[in-house]
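thread: overnight batch results

M.L. [08:02]
morning all. the overnight job finished for the chain we discussed friday. pasting input first so we're all looking at the same thing
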Amino acid sequence: MNIDLSSATLSRKITNFSGRVFGILRISLLLFFLFALLVRVGAQQKASNKIKLPEELREVSGLYIESPDRFWWHNDSSNPPILFQTDAQGNIREEICLDTWKNKDWEDITADDSGNIYIGDFGNNCNCRTDLRIYIYNQETEALATIEFTLEDQTLFPPDKKDQRFDLEAFFWHDGTLHLFSKNTLHGGDWVSTHYVLSESPGTQVAQVYESIVLPKRVVTGAAISADGKTVALVAYRFKMLLGFIPFSQASVFVFSEFEGSNYFQGNMKKKAIPPFFIATQYESIDFLDAQTVYVASERTLFIRPRAKKMKILP
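M.L. [08:03]
and the structure it wrote out:
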């Protein structure tokens, strides 16, 4: 057998071999970087179990989850009228200043199927407001509109202390209707939450009483409905001073299912406790991530930054 071992032949063979090796390496590196990119994108889109919110959301009061990586938030009273949009880790992507309006006491946020975001400026701790409003902002057109309303069953502004159950901090949109849930007074009240309904149409309206429920030792601060309309969740808490000087709070999510129409309180109710922290925590907002899971968010308190926690509320 004749073997060609000339330097030219060896050089050509080595070059061809090296070319194949480098080709394989380039393909391997390309596949590696593509895989790393997919992992990173997946990590960005995956919702965290806990979200540490930025200082800009120190008094977060409303949450609307548009998608698993697109969260909308706002602060409550006396803060600028700004909507914040973050990713699933709490990083701010966008701020929308709605300076046509004032944040007198923004308490909750929801959205419909047409790109409209509804902002509830109806916080009413004193039970004395006669200017309750819901603002409507369209994401695509940036059109603005307002619903001005009163409550059907309130005639005194304010009523006697024992009858002060007309504060509002929770609502959601469903099938053309806005569903509002009242917050009873924390001290001396009867723990009743009233479910009111309003049309989604701008203009002046009267919120009609639909039903009510007693939630012992809890006042409602946030509400949400699942995308399929089959489950409603209310976040509610209590607050008191232990030994007269130690702030203490307990919070729960009340889950309603198997109801007919909008008779949520007539359905099956389950109470899911939110694990307490050693310092009082004020949970004010809630929304569904999927049919079984919600996020609940709390304001900044002593030594605790604003944050949101993922909870599984159904099997």
